[in-house]
Task: inverse folding
């Protein structure tokens, strides 16, 4: 008898989604859908507002990564007015952004993705969360995680004006600089962050790479897709989160395109499916060929793993050492095993911490020259940064008064919607056989999307460690056969 399995809501991600799995008469997976039932509509209701408000309005898209939207909107507003911020303003923006990156990647490894490895993918659901991780690795490490997030948010508040939803970036720069006293405090926190990132990589080495079953799971075919890889790069093709050009490499690691932010519409298009509110971006010059991987499919990923694949290395010394170990261990570039994204994320955490120290020790960081007054008539502008979850593009059109007449946002997670759909579908087909379905197997299906750290952002989020989960099984006529619930 044909069955339908619903995982709704899926857990340990930012935002809301569900997975529908359809079984055939033999109990094997016929198809599955990763659906996003929420609708935000920011592109519509920012119309009619001044461009100066975009860094403040769009950072309300998400309570987890508002800094990414604040930066992309600020850079787009710069472009609308054709104004180039002073060097110190750019340094301060990037410094804030590195502190944010450290908090965000820490949250995902320890609270969202990490429990699958630290506790085990089939551990009791009551233990497979941040509290279980702290219980297993020790309270002292839990304290380090909290300290890392505290330091990150402290820096965001110092530079951005608020711990969450920063408000200091404006067209032409930032509203205020930092004092020498603040600089020294930020430097000390940055040095601590470098040690914390190295500690986290050692923890991953001991718990994950030291466990053959986990290594086999990472290198296996269940979580592997050969797609194009995207990331923002500096002039030397090194990973850069704040500035540069977007580089895309093919499944063999060869450069396919490299484009400036204002050229994105020449290379990226979006496909629509009737069963979800999210769009599916793809490489325009190849075209949409469905949910397929390989060189002939326009599907690409934009994640920590794809950024490493698309780069020629990391711009800081310690992160570069781990970058080289990463590819030496996993058989060279590019790496397509999606669970390796967790390792790549920790390498990025180390890069962000090292870059944090570089920026705060720059002689210009305390200069009072933090703003260039816009003088041009506003028209149209595009800003791109690398959000933790992928390349983030903000594009605004305005009238001559600077009032937004049209907006287009391609957020980090949107880039990955097609590969997430492919990964969850492949995991479901590979793991669910002969009608055997249990909580551990369904969690391993969810692990397929957690590697991407998707953020289906809304204004507020909750991480209580006990997310509600309901699984419904239907027969071919739509009659419920069984309902499994936890925390709801």
Result:
């Amino acid at each position: 008898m044909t069955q339908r399995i619903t995982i709704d809501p899926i857990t340990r991600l930012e935002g809301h989604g569900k997975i529908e799995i359809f079984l055939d008469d033999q109990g094997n997976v016929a198809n599955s859908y990763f659906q996003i039932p929420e609708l935000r509509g920011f592109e519509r209701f920012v119309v009619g507002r001044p461009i100066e408000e975009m860094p403040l309005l769009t950072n309300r898209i998400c309570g987890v990564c508002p800094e990414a939207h604040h930066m992309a909107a600020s850079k787009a507003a710069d472009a609308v007015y054709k104004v180039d911020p002073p060097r110190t303003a750019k340094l301060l923006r990037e410094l804030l952004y590195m502190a944010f990156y450290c908090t965000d990647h820490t949250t995902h490894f320890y609270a969202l993705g990490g429990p699958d490895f630290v506790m085990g993918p089939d551990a009791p659901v009551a233990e497979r969360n941040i509290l279980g991780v702290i219980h297993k690795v020790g309270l002292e490490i839990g304290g380090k995680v909290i300290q890392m997030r505290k330091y990150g948010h402290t820096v965001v508040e110092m530079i951005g004006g608020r711990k969450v939803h920063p408000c200091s970036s404006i067209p032409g720069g930032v509203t205020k600089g930092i004092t020498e006293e603040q600089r020294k405090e930020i430097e000390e926190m940055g040095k601590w962050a470098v040690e914390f990132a190295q500690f986290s990589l050692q923890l991953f080495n001991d718990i994950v790479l030291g466990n053959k079953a986990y290594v086999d799971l990472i290198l296996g075919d269940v979580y592997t897709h050969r797609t194009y890889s995207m990331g923002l790069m500096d002039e030397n093709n090194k990973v850069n989160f704040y500035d540069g050009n977007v580089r895309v490499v093919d499944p063999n690691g060869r450069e396919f395109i490299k484009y400036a932010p204002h050229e994105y519409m020449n290379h990226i298009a979006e496909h629509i499916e009737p069963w979800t509110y999210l769009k599916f971006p793809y490489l325009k010059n190849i075209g949409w060929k469905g949910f397929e991987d390989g060189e002939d499919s326009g599907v690409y990923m934009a994640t920590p793993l794809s950024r490493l694949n698309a780069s020629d290395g990391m711009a800081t010394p310690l992160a570069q050492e781990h970058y080289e170990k990463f590819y030496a261990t996993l058989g060279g570039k590019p790496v397509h095993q999606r669970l390796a994204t967790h390792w790549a994320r920790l390498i990025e955490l180390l890069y962000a911490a090292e870059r944090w120290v570089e920026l705060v020790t720059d002689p210009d960081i305390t200069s009072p020259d933090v703003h260039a007054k816009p003088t041009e008539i506003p028209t149209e502008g595009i800003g791109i940064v690398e959000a933790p979850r992928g390349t983030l593009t903000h594009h605004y059109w305005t009238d001559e008064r600077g009032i937004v007449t049209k907006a287009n946002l391609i957020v980090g997670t949107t880039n990955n919607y097609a590969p997430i759909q492919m990964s969850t579908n492949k995991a479901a087909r590979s793991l669910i056989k002969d009608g055997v379905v249990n909580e551990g197997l369904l969690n391993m299906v969810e692990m397929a999307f957690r590697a991407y750290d998707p953020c289906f952002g809304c204004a507020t989020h909750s991480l209580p460690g006990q997310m509600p989960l309901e699984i419904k099984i239907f027969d071919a006529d739509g009659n419920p056969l069984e309902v499994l619930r936890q925390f709801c």
In short: Residues 458-471 have pLDDT under 50 and may be disordered. The first strand starts at residue 3 and ends at 8.
